[in-house]
Amino acid sequence: MNWEIIIGFETHAQLSTVSKLFSGASTRFGALPNMQACAVDLALPGVLPVANRGAVERAILFGLATDATIAAQSVFARKHYFYPDLPKGYQISQHEQPVVRDGTLTIEIPAQEKAGQAADQKTVRIARAHLEEDAGKSLHEDGTNSSGIDLNRAGIPLLEIVTEPDLHSAAEALAYAKALHALVVWLGICDGNMQEGSFRCDVNVSVRPSGQPALGTRCEIKNLNSFRFMEEAIQVEARRQIKLIEEGGTVEQETRLYDPERRETRAMRNKEDARDYRYFPDPDLPSLVIDASWVEQVRAALPEFPDAMRARWMAQYGLGRADARCLTASRPLAAYYEAVIASVSALQGACDQEIAKMAANWMIGELSAQLNRDGIEIDACPISPAQLARLLARIQDGTVSNKAAKDVFHQMWEDKARDVDAADRIIAVKGLKQISDAGALESIIDTALAENPKSVEEFRAGKAKAFNALVGQVMKATRGQANPQQVNQLLKARLEQ
Ligand code: ADP
Ligand code: MG
After folding, report:
1. Are residues 314 and 232 in the same domain?
2. Is pLDDT above 60 for 119?
3. How far is CA 100 from each of CA 7, 78, 131, 435, rounded to the nearest angstrom?
4. Which domain holds residue 365?
5. Which of 21, 168, 346, 355 is paired with 104 by a 20 to 30 Å CA distance?
6. Which atom of ligand 1 lies closest to the CA of 205?
7. Which one of 218, 219, 276 would you pick to mutate in the ligand 1 pocket, going by the greatest count of ligand atoms within 8 A of its CB?
8. Is the pLDDT of residue 454 over 50?
9. How far is the CA of 427 from the centre of ligand 2 (A)?
10. Alpha-carbon torsion 80, 81, 85, 87, what sign?
């Protein structure tokens, strides 16, 4: 029998606010246990929650970026369950009226992993995105025979992003998770750090015989915080369900955990349904009202998206698609490229395609290699966009050869040069200026010809190689500072006289 796999995602993206969703406590990662838990997070009697405006704005930004409906009025609800890391006995979330509804996210599925006839691009429906607070964490200290509770995470703002069951393979699911991750990071609403738990996915998986209209019973695999485990878990879980049904069993709706060591999913608990949670509107919080002017204010802060940026660069600067994709790998990298272009424009009145492409090549080549070697991000790059722009201008106007420019680049990098004209300074100090004065070159060429009569003879006898030997002599005589193209031209002209 042919089976179809159906997948839906519930992703918790930690919002990048400085303080928590309903209290002023810090959200900084890595503090000692309970150093960042205030009276509200501890659920002491008499305290009241106040919604964090910055968290709401990040949710609006996400809604705008996914073409969703932003609810003019949404409601915070209490979701009840009992667990030691939840001192209130309920989590504040949103249930019936989430802040964001009916969005879409377009994903690209890599061609080689494409499942069957699936198209390269696919639009995934985002059913909803709602604000909720995170819970604390139980610490089971080894050897002390006791457990502790750390409430630093309690109250951390999360945006839970829920898709419709629109994905049909592990490859599609992975493409979605990566696209969503890239989007929230690009928007700057989440730092995307998966190791620190800033981006966690619960993946719902079901299977059905191909052609059957009704959905099969799903299992939810909780807390997948690496792309690799996500892909494995989906494959393993789909296989488990198919085998179970083919052997005459039925899938129970439940929450499962993925064990990467044993490459299997294991039942964790039966799935609660909404009734178990006894949701009701939180009487301590007024409904969240978002008027049109607030939405417009947030819209003004929407960054340009990578697709649009790539299309613009390809049209305006003649960049290839692959290069444009490289430079939009992150927002700071894209911003650096734009800053180089802006510097060139300021210097020259405009930025032509030649230098714009040169800038792209230098960033993808030399600059990225150097960042990798030093293990730093573009934000910490010791060469500023303005400094790079000036170096590129010197290559373009023939002051330095490409080879000498690399030398200048490395010197600037090592020096952590601060002066904007570092390139000119280094070119002068190291004597890297290219000789392109025709008169000076001609006399060097004449000397070379006089000193190498054998090569001249061979060239005249039709030996092409002899020409290269003569070019080599000239380059040597100028210590590599002649413009090779110009040497070629002048030498040819001289020999043909
Ligand atoms: P609940 O209210 O029980 O949390 P939802 O309807 O909100 O259920 O769905 C939770 C997630 O499960 C969504 O991402 C949804 O797309 C997905 N989902 C629902 N039904 C199925 C199914 N049969 N197979 C796979 N995923 C499903
Ligand atoms: Mg749900």
Report:
1. no
2. no
3. 21, 18, 9, 63
4. 306-430
5. 21
6. 25
7. 218
8. yes
9. 62
10. positive
